[in-house]
Amino acid sequence: MKIQAVKGTRDFYPPQMVVRNFIIDGWKAASLRNGFEEYDGPIFEYLKMFQIKSGDEIAEQLFNFTDRGGRALAIRPEITPTLARMVNQKISALPRPIKWFSVPRLCRAERPQKGRLREFFQWNIDIIGVDDILADAEIIFTTIDYLRSLGLTPKNIKAKISSRKLLAAFLINIGITDKDLESLYPVLDKKARLPAEAFDEMLAKVVTDAKTAAMVKAFMEIDKPSNITSKLLRLINVSDEAAEAEKELEDLLELLESMGIGDYCEFDPGIVRGLAYYTGIVFEVHDIVGEFRAVCGGGRFDNLLKDFGGPSIPATGMGMGDCVLEILLREKGLLKNKPSTRSLDYFVAYADKALLTEAIKITANLRKAGLATDFSYKAGSLKKQLKEASLANSTRCIIVGREYENGELVVKDMATGKQETILEDKFWAELENRKGAL
Amino acid sequence: MKIQAVKGTRDFYPPQMVVRNFIIDGWKAASLRNGFEEYDGPIFEYLKMFQIKSGDEIAEQLFNFTDRGGRALAIRPEITPTLARMVNQKISALPRPIKWFSVPRLCRAERPQKGRLREFFQWNIDIIGVDDILADAEIIFTTIDYLRSLGLTPKNIKAKISSRKLLAAFLINIGITDKDLESLYPVLDKKARLPAEAFDEMLAKVVTDAKTAAMVKAFMEIDKPSNITSKLLRLINVSDEAAEAEKELEDLLELLESMGIGDYCEFDPGIVRGLAYYTGIVFEVHDIVGEFRAVCGGGRFDNLLKDFGGPSIPATGMGMGDCVLEILLREKGLLKNKPSTRSLDYFVAYADKALLTEAIKITANLRKAGLATDFSYKAGSLKKQLKEASLANSTRCIIVGREYENGELVVKDMATGKQETILEDKFWAELENRKGAL
């Protein structure tokens, strides 16, 4: 019976696995050097947990099932609810600030399309327990620190930053009700991806008054944070909240400048993020060429832990999926220098089958010493075995040949082709010495 | 709303995550140094795929569900079916031998108990396309190479090895039908874990003739492979298959001796493995003290690829879960030297809030240079900040204090407590030099 993989999932053969590891290892390294600790939760949780943050309709985007005990469960579509649950469960025992990262495997029952699969990996970094804008700066810095380490420059990507607090203060100032805010956010979030008329039409459905709608659009076109107050002044009376939010934005941009990533960052009031749960700074990193394609997004969500039954503790974070990132890296030619699927320290070749046992002994000893070593299962010609060594990206090749009668091995440097004959005892002694020197 | 994790799953807080990473990183390192390449498949597949190897009843042990397209899917309970599918799909393009490993996350809808959870990780190594006993030796060597690297000695663990080919030849010789073999294997597999009477009772249900049952028991008590033929001779006429299988076992044990792990290995005809799909060498690694507890198991399964709609290609492999292993390592005190959840190269402390921006700049520059660095979000006393540095296992601490007026930093070695005052420019120049030297 021939069976295929399910549509929207990926098989990671060794060449694809190397790319996945390259991305995930990079996420881990960037997290650790920025002072984050790793956590993870289960791949499935109670279905109702995923509905707290995203509403009942999320069930349709989930792979959900019932176990034999009748529990309604689902494969996780995101890790933030798990984070909230885990932090709440141990809140009094956890030293703060909580600076955690994770690289979960996630599944969403979506229609597969370019850059959006039904199974993917996502880098998450979160700082919990810090009210200060410093934490938002840390999240954005860590994100850019990773992308920069891949070779992406300010010419390739930009972190576009805005403030939900500012947007909310402004919208309430111009008469939008609290109730309408939630339906307005997803509309504003789509602005950059929609033709102007389509956006106007969607906006008009939520904001029926034309003058108010024009003010909303004017706000979204402000180009500098220092222009916010003056521009706002022309539109409305600036509230304390709006002025405070503006100050916060300015401080943030200054901090990012100090951190040396000012040229990667810009204010963009068009950044809204669809979800209702953001409460402060929001940002997305965009591919500059790729038509508004977001590589990642995040922001402050000070009410999340409370929504999950815990205390009121501030939090800010970021999530980045592997699919869009991989497309971007491929387009920019930044996946070319990735490590190969195999690389050995030694390949042990043997001149004829009678020497196989010796070759195996040497292989086993090298591996025991922690060195990546392989040998051929078939006693092919030395030429064939050397080719196998080369295919396996071996640094050196040991040849067990007729010199072995005198207790000697031939060690060949695969890059230079240089060969050296050495007494086996001496070879092991030198290896031991090198280990001691490290 | 307070929500718990589902029973039988684990939350990996940073201290637990470190242990999981310690185990999985060790699996990966052992695989790579033994010449295996990494692969992975999706977390869910078509339900029917998992029924090929294990029968329809496996559905009860699976978390299965139907997607919106009406497809019957399941979370993977093992990765071998995925391996068979992936290899079959690209069989003509893959260079052989295929020597692959994976560390999949797996789920089984079992009743949780000690060492057996509903979600776990499993190390899998497989060699496909090699008929030779050498491949079986490689699988056992790689398994022991990993366990040995953790500090487990032949006094802690043993690889108990037998041959399904030998067992099958013997059972057929004494008159067991092919049909009865499949129901007999799971019974024999349980022998070591059952009281003698309970085993006798189970055996009698499949092998009704008492004399035949006695022969089966006599076989399972043979203690050395070299005794097989002579012991068998007393019982029956040795078939060619049985003699061949015995020779193979003896060759394997000799190979393992050459590889330097002879003292970790022993012949044990009581090792059967329950599943019908094994065709040759089978083995389990047991904790010697822990009452027959198997740490891992594996063997040869030459028909698997064919059963999955592919060509007839020999294969041999091993699977090791993380739960029993972790219990074993904990019991033996081998998890004590694991890395801590955080460790920094530098912690940047600042004497008062006015110096925060400088501290941030220094932090950002160190991180950019690839060094794990953190700082305090609160301008607490220097004493408090140094304590934070120590909690984060920082190697060094940089103090931005009043010396900074003269452009100087204080660098404190956290292990020795020694402090050095250095011009900031010189600090960066030296860092650059050290990077160049590496």
Short description:
The structure is a homodimer of 438-residue chains. With 438 residues, chain A is α+β, with helices and mostly antiparallel strands. Chain A has 15 helices and 17 strands.
What is the topology?
Two copies of one chain form a homodimer.
Chain A (H helix, E strand, L loop, with lengths): L13 H20 L3 E2 L5 E3 H8 L9 E3 L5 E4 L4 H10 L8 E5 L2 E3 L11 E10 L4 H17 L7 E7 H10 L4 H12 L6 H11 L3 H11 L7 H8 L4 H19 L6 E3 L13 E7 L6 E7 L3 H4 L7 E7 H10 L12 E7 L5 H13 L4 E3 L6 H10 L2 E7 L7 E6 L5 E5 H14 L1
Parallel strand pairs in A: 1-5, 8-9, 13-14, 13-15
Antiparallel strand pairs in A: 2-4, 3-4, 5-7, 6-7, 7-12, 8-10, 10-11, 11-12, 15-16, 16-17
Helix pairs in contact in A: 1-4, 4-10, 5-10, 6-7
Count of helix runs of chain A: 15
Oligomeric state as shown: homodimer
Number of strands of chain A: 17
| Bulk shape of chain A | elongated
Strand fraction of chain A equals: 15-25%
Fraction of residues in H or I helices of chain A: 40-55%
Specify the CATH architecture of the domain at 8-131 and 302-341 in chain A: 2-Layer Sandwich
Rounded to the nearest angstrom, the radius of gyration of chain A is 28 Å
Mean pLDDT of chain A: 91
Distance between the termini of chain A: 53 Å
Low-confidence stretches of chain A: none
Largest interface: A-B, 91 and 91 residues
Per the CATH scheme, the topology name of the domain at 8-131 and 302-341 in chain A is BirA Bifunctional Protein, domain 2
Largest sheet of chain A: 9 strands, mixed
The first-level CATH class of the domain at 8-131 and 302-341 in chain A is given as Alpha Beta
Helix and strand content put the structural class of chain A at alpha+beta
CATH superfamily of the domain at 8-131 and 302-341 in chain A: Bira Bifunctional Protein, Domain 2
